């Protein structure tokens, strides 16, 4: 399964005490392919260092760089589909470039994508993705 994960989703999935830790485990265990860009990694780094202790933040970032199932993606076209928060477009553009199956986010700005026919970006909330993905990840 090919995924792009918004920063808020990554943050809440890291802790082993989180009910969403299944997603982080799926990444670590290579059960999904995660697509990232330099812009996404920069935001991940910024927020991880802001919200977590330094050791956990750097361990997570190193893992994302070293795992074979985390794929660096090059963006050739910026669609600018999200007008209300243009900073979110980096995730959309990555999902399009990677032909990702899903973009997982809890951010309401992404809801606009459900009304856009082309390019198609399948967006799912983290809470809904658990029920949708867990059986296929086993």
3D structure, described in words:
- The radius of gyration is 14 Å and the shape is globular.
- A 5-stranded parallel beta sheet has the order 3-2-1-4-5, with helices on both faces.
- The protein has about 140 residues and is an alpha/beta fold.
- It contains 6 helices and 5 strands, in the order E-H-H-E-H-H-E-H-E-E-H.
- About 45% of the residues lie in helices and about 10% in strands.
- The longest helix has 14 residues, at about 40-50.
List keywords for this structure.
five-stranded parallel β-sheet; 6 helices; Rossmann fold; 138 residues
CATH class: Alpha Beta
Approximately what portion of the residues adopt beta-strand conformation? 5-15%
What do we call the CATH homologous superfamily?
5'-nuclease
Pairing-aware structural class of the strands and helices?
alpha/beta
| Strand neighbour order, sheet with most strands | 3-2-1-4-5
Determine the N-to-C terminus distance: 12 Å
Assign the CATH topology: Rossmann fold
Q: Which radius of gyration do the C-alpha atoms yield?
A: 14 Å
Q: Low-confidence parts lasting 5 or more residues at pLDDT below 50?
A: none
How many helices does DSSP assign? 6
Q: How many strands appear in the DSSP assignment? A: 5
What's the number of structural domains? 1
Q: What fraction, in percent, of the residue positions are helical?
A: 40-55%
* Order of secondary-structure elements: EHHEHHEHEEH
Average pLDDT taken over every residue: 92
